[in-house]
Amino acid sequence: xxxxxxxxxxxxxxxxxxxxxxxxxxxxxxxxxxxxxxxxxxxxxxxxxxxxxxxxxxxxxxxxxxxxxxxxxxxxxxxxxxxxxxxxxxxxxxxxxxxxxxxxxxxxxxxxxxxxxxxxxxxxxxxxxxxxxxxxxxxxxxxxxxxxxxxxxxxxxxxxxxxxxxxxxxxxxxxxxxxxxxxxxxxxxxxxxxxxxxxxxxxxxxxxxxxxxxxxxxxxxxxxxxxxxxxxxxxxxxxxxxxxxxxxxxxxxxxxxxxxxxxxxxxxxxxxxxxxxxxxxxxxxxxxxxxxxxxxxxxxxxxxxxxxxxxxxxxxxxxxxxxxxxxxxxxxxxxxxxxxxxxxxxxxxxxxxxxxxxxxxxxxxxxxxxxxxxxxxxxxxxxxxxxxxxxxxxxxxxxxxxxxxxxxxxxxxxxxxxxxxxxxxxxxxxxxxxxxxxxxxxxxxxxxxxxxxxxxxxxxxxxxxxxxxxxxxxxxxxxxxxxxxxxxxxxxxxxxxxxxxxxxxxxxxxxxxxxxxxxxxxxxxxxxxxxxxxxxxxxxxxxxxxxxxxxxxxxxxxxxxxxxxxxxxxxxxxxxxxxxxxxxxxxxxxxxxxxxxxxxxxxxxxxxxxxxxxxxxxxxxxxxxxxxxxxxxxxxxxxxxxxxxxxxxxxxxxxxxxxxxxxxxxxxxxxxxxxxxxxxxxxxxxxxxxxxxxxxxxxxxxxxxxxxxxxxxxxxxxxxxxxxxxxxxxxxxxxxxxxxxxxxxxxxxxxxxxxxxxxxxxxxxx
Length: 766
Hints:
elongated, LINES_N, Protein_Lines, Lines homolog 1, Lines_C
């Protein structure tokens, strides 16, 4: 009899139909009976009812927005048979409690219906439903325990929001459990429930979060700090942590989830509580845990949590990181985190972290035939660790006033990171070997756009800071000092022009990819590009030099070597560790640079055989870029604008290079430059700009990279391709802006791009 009434109540609540009977009737229906443990044989052996079959007017209603934690279970309750065991009845009661809390908080439900639900909750509180839910947390049945935790969290938050008071039984349970660690039981259940209450607070956009959070966390503040110290100072090499399914491991994973919720909640408070700052202030505990012998899944969760810390992504839909960083407490916390990270990295901490944890495969724990998982590194963790270190360096350097404060940390940390990348990133057999340190960034981060631009921005800011410090130290640096500075920037792998050009090369100079990044709100590419274009305006000649170095890498006519002046003592960020990274012998790694003092920044191979290898690697690189662009589809077809042909300069660039006669030396040379254009009265035959694009090509840009048949000047291939890519980006943004289709005002960006175009044209006139 009771189960049929519960089913009817479920249907009515699901459909939003007002409950017709008295509140006492419904409170008695969903009041839990936990005097006897709900784990009899019937409950464990009988499977949950299937969703197939049965009748009911609301069985197909989508309730995922109402009960996201139990939607699969809820869809089957409306049409069950009457042969229920106690476990299934209890699951239905817990589902109804969570559903009713969601309905009571929803503004889409009629006020009188919401009032009815609140009356039922008052009666349930009098019946001590909270104590019964706490008792149920310790149930061996994982599903019952999980549903009890979710329902308890919903009731605690509802009471906090509606009555502005904390639930006393839940608070007492939490305090006793945390203070009693490690002797207390149900630690994981306590942590999960607290994390669920925090998430409920952050989800509610209608209630100011600051007051609710203070009321919730203030009584637990000191206790949580003590628990942080206790659980992270454990002996993680003991047998309790050998299995990923042990109670100790479960406690630690639940605590990581709570730390993530606390990190997300700190943005709501102008002055965060101690428990919201403890992860920053005592991050050394976490770093020690990561290097211990705990299961790999825990290490990975901690590393990804540190990545969220350094990116200050406290909430996915929160305020921007730059605004968040203005808080004085966060500046202090970030500096403490950065110092701790750099200290352990300089002690070879990175080498103690294995990145070859066993991968999980969909539907199986084993790899598919032909898939070699041995020796491959976890790229997600590799990127996260790299980003944590780069952002720590950025913040430490940003808050340092003199070169002496940052010289040692930067030199040592970057050398460790470069060795770390070389150990764990294996270029594909089809690609060319890595001969330049600035290329590592694009190799490591290319598969993750948001991380890549965060890393690139960090290195750009580091470069700007060093450049400013060097300028302050010497108003008129000598040529030797400038050469030393160039060498160290390349050796450290953070030359911004190299990094940008390597990225353009990876995307085959496709301007629509850049446009996608500018439109997307998921990356910091806009901030990076604005900063870089400002630098480009000041360092145009350095940019041209780097482009020439790129050309030398792809041909045999130009060998460029950058080396520190002989006998000169380096005056800026130098030392044996960084020198050794650049000048390692070939016996150590096939990707090392030229040894000894002739450390080439770009190595141009010499001899017929080596030249053939370069040509082969270049063609393979183009193939890699082509396949990569297949997955980088543009968000919008930007060439479909109505006046796109009208706005072109009447110049055309054809993709089909087979139209070029192979026996024409001049045409082949122009094709190799990557850009050849015609005027109306010139030869109409043209060649490719990139293997994937059909774009308008400006004569002024293309003249930059064309060389005469008698080899008067160098072929400026990279300069032509890169500046043309930026010009195409400028044209696409302008078209979208004229139609009011660009998501923000790009005037400042267009001004910077226009300045680059002017500098490019001025070179063509020389």
